[in-house]
Amino acid sequence: MELDRTGKENPLRAGLRRDLAADPCSMVIFGASGDLTRRKLVPALYNLRLDRLLPGPGAVVGAARREMSNEAFAASLRKGVEAYSRRGIDDALWDELASGISYVTTENSVEGYRRLGEHLDRLDRERGTGGNRLFYVSTPPSAFPGIVERLGQAGLNRPGNGGRWARIVLEKPIGHDLESARELNRVVNQVFDERDVFRIDHYLGKETVQNLMVFRFGNSIFEPLWNQKYVDHVQLTVAESIGVEGRGKYYEEAGTTRDMVQNHLFQLLCLIAMEAPASLRPDAIRDEKVKVLESLRPVPIDQVGCTTVRGQYAEGVVGGRKVPGYKQEPDVAADSRAETYVAMQLFIDNWRWGGVPFYLRAAKRMPKRVTEIALQFREVPHHLFEQNVAPNALALRIQPDEGINLRFESKSPGPKMRVHPVSMDFRYGTSFGQQPPEAYERLILDAILGDSTLFIRRDEVEASWRYIDVLEQGWREGASGAGLPEYAAGSWGPVESDELLARGGRKWRRP
Amino acid sequence: MAKTVMSPANRARVPDVARVEAQLAELWREASGDGDPVTRACTLNLVVVCSDGAEDLQAATKLVARVAETEPGRALVISFAEGDERESGADGMEVYVSAHCHRGAGGKQICSEQITLEARGAGRELIPATVLQLLVGELPVYTLWRREEFGRDSLPQALCDLSDRFIANSGNRRDPMRALAGLQRFSAGVSGEGRTADISWERIESWREALASFFDAPSLRPGLNRIQGLQIEASGPAGAYLAGWLASRLDWKRDQVKISFAPAPGLPPCELASVRIETEIDGAPATLIARRTDAKSDVVLLSVESKKNCPLPWRIKLPARDDAALLCGLLQRSRKDPIFDAALGAASRL
User: Fold this and answer.
1) Tens digits of per-residue pLDDT, A481-504?
2) CB-based burial label for B94 (10 Å; 0-12, 13-18, 19+)
3) Do A312 and A325 contact (CB within 8 A), yes or no?
4) Which residues of B are less than 8 Å from A429 in CB distance?
5) Cα of A126 to nearest chain B Cα, Å
């Protein structure tokens, strides 16, 4: 379905800064009593209304098992907007949004979903939501299949009267391995056409992640260097300073690999390594991303231990405070083998990247929160100067202090030919004074517009799980009686991780 | 919040560009203060031509400071000294440099520079060449013309020739409609070439979005081609621009649509209070209304009155944008705006 992005249908839209016209719709949030709704989803909706990007008056329906009145639900959402919105609350606008907020207690029955459908039909008449439906599934993954199946059985996978679409948004994780991901995708695609399925990885909604495409394909000077001839290796880091924050039970099942590598890190890997798409059509871009995943060199099961390092944080000091170790966290087993740190070396076997190692690491309780991609270039072929010149490095900082940094060598002032590394720096904060929208604002708007560019396609999910499954199997089969290596909270990880790079004569950046 | 650090006047009959640059470097060293490093940020050149009088120079400096927080760059502020304000008989130009600094992301001190050129007498003729010498290379150039007239001398044309965009603010003039007409004539001149812009046009963008949103719904879109009446309550040129926009986008022929304007007492300059569009949808009359909820409110209520099914009323909040914010909006736009050009032409004919 082509989006009308140019005002061809509505000539008054041409030339407006906001030339995208979103359809009116109802947004149904399953798992609405959870944290994500309060902290991210409804503040995003509010800011989209504030920016006049969503047509009024609209409707938001919370669907969960817990009983709650419409008023109590709206009040709790208001508190979330007050606490988490990037802009203050406007009472008149909030009141109008709140007048369209309702709460439905969902039973696990088709009849319950049919009543939901009747409620949505009523909202079409009373709130002008036009028969368009966006179902946002923000529940534990185990609930996904049931919700999807019941939507289908109740006919809610089709638009309402006069509507153009019914879409479903799924929060990560999509499955916990290849088999479960395939099964979930099968269930979802039995009910919703793939073009109406939007799998979220909120990293793709970040401005700086979207800037990767512009940086690579909007500038001609970098592309000739973006390959194995000039790049020695690439480091991707997703580091968090926080611990598991009370989600011990989830982390025991998931671990960092499933929580952060399979989704965020692999998405960054795809954007950094992909070929230029032929167009900005969603599938043109996603086709190139899938090619990266399918070019990952398979790791033999018995080699997994050599190409990966896992660890768990022990007690330490973060942000000037003593913090407990992972095993001291609530709901974490004393003999837990869930990793809070993972590093891996992988290769992309294609013409562009043949022989270039990619080092990925993701971890909790690091010294600071940082997400960064760094291309380390090869050394100069011949050293002319007395000192060793350091290789050039191009670092793309995704968060915080978003920007791009190029390190190169320069002559120090003075009579001798002495070289010194210097930085050429672009910082979002100094060049662009506006506050960028939050990731969820962009993603929710795109789902309503039907633009799936920033969402994960079915085959991307399955290709990434295919790779991760081998690692998980390798870890299970290679597990010794000893626990995982520990690292002090507030340090950059276990020493084994340094050895992973040292073998190739390299070392981790200290972001 | 930006602060301005003024240096002593760099007196010179003909400005020496090298001295200006050195003075700026010294200024940043001073601004660094207690070892707090300064980041000089520069993404554009902004040339501001003041109206007569010291007050407008002050107002322009405040405007530049605000703009610098979002669009850091080099500002060249040009003012004209008359009579006894300077040494009698001395023609030429005096140059001052200053820096506007604010705390950016991460707490860094970010500074943009302002070079003030005070021209008197024959010094006025030196302005275009001096501006050319002081522009930061390879960055876009925007000129903001704050004076009443465009056509009395060659200066606006000369500056427009240097600029990627030449920006006026017709709503701020003593006679806004005359200023709009003057801008249209200037724009239509050989060197205009679609590079002109008006802050007053930028001010009405959210109203344009609101009216456009009526016709996003497929059920109401046929009404676009059946508009019979347009009533606008507005101050300054806002109403003319809105009508000109609709007329040019919808290709209205002369007298095709009955257009009327009414003043809006109590509104700030160049603002809209209400817009009523009378049209026909599915054979039935329909009125589309966008109206502020009250004269001082920034909330606009959008409603449709029709015997046929029509959407519920809804509210939008107009963004609070002063001249600095509107100017930043223009600086962020692509260089040419053919929609504006067409609307300006149509507005000047109303």
Assistant:
1) 678 999 999 999 999 999 999 999
2) buried
3) yes
4) 104-106, 108, 110
5) 8
Q: Sign of the CA dihedral A109, A115, A121, A122?
A: negative
**DSSP β-bridge partners for residue B97:** B115
B105 and A427: CB-CB below 8 Å? Answer: yes
The DSSP code sequence of A325-345 is -GGGSTT--TT----SEEEEE
Mean pLDDT lowest among A380-389, A398-407, B49-58: A380-389
Q: Specify the pLDDT at position A434.
A: 65
A-chain residue closest to B212, CA distance:
A12
User: pLDDT tens digit string along A379-398?
Assistant: 888 888 877 788 999 999 99
pLDDT at B7 over 70: no
Find where tokens 């009308």 sit. A4
Probe site for chain A from B248, B315, B335 (most A CB atoms < 10 A): B315
The 3 state secondary structure assigned to chain B is: CCEEEECCCEECCCCCHHHHHHHHHHHHHHHHCCCCCEEECCCCEEEEECCCCHHHHHHHHHHHHHHHHHCCCEEEEEEEECHHHCCCCCCEEEEEEEEEEEECHHHCEEEEEEEEEEEEHHHHHHHHHHHHHHCCCCCCEEEEECCCCCCCCCHHHHHHHHCCEEEECHHHCCCHHHHHHHHHHHHHCCCCCCCEEEHHHHHCHHHHHHHHHHCCCCCCHHHHHHCCEEEEEECCCHHHHHHHHHHHHCCCCCCCCEEEEEECCCCCCCCEEEEEEEEEECCEEEEEEEEECCCCCCEEEEEEEECCCCCCCEEEECCCCCHHHHHHHHHHCCCCCHHHHHHHHHHHHC
User: What is the SS3 assignment for A47-58?
Assistant: HHHHCCCCCCCC
Given a cut of 60, is residue B91 above it in pLDDT? Answer: no
- Residue of A266 and A410 predicted with greater confidence: A266
Half-sphere exposure of residue A75, counting CA atoms within 13 Å on the CB side?
Answer: 5
Number of A to B CB contacts under 8 A, please give it: 105
Give yes or no for residue B258 having a pLDDT over 80: yes
Contact A15 B224 (CB under 8 A): no
The model's pTM = 0.84
A11·B224 Cβ contact <8 A: yes
For A457, the 3-state DSSP assignment is: coil
Interface residue A50 vs chain B (CB under 8 A): yes
Least CB-CB distance to B314: which of A96, A401, A430? A96
pLDDT score recorded for residue B324: 93
Of residues A18, A127, A430, nearest to B39 (C-beta) = A430
For chain B, what percent of residues have pLDDT higher than 70? 84
Q: Do B212 and A428 touch (CB under 8 A)?
A: no
Q: Judge contact between A510 and A501, C-beta under 8 A.
A: no
SS3 A423: strand
Mean pLDDT of A186-197: 97
- Compute the nearest-CA separation of A159 from chain B (Å): 16
* Predicted confidence band of residue A401 (pLDDT cuts 50, 70, 90): confident
Whether residue A12 and residue B224 make contact (CB cut-off 8 A), yes or no, is: yes
Inter-chain touch B70–A50, beta carbons under 8 Å: no
> What pLDDT shows up at residue A274?
97
Mean pLDDT calculated for residue range B74-81: 92
Residues of A marked active site are found at 264
Taking contacts as CB-CB distances below 8 angstroms, the residues of chain A near B208 are 12, 16
Contacts for B152 with CB less than 8 Å, ≥ 6 apart: none
Contacts of A158 (CB under 8 A, 6+ apart): A166
Are A431 and B212 a contacting pair at CB < 8 A? no
Q: What is the pLDDT of residue A399?
A: 87
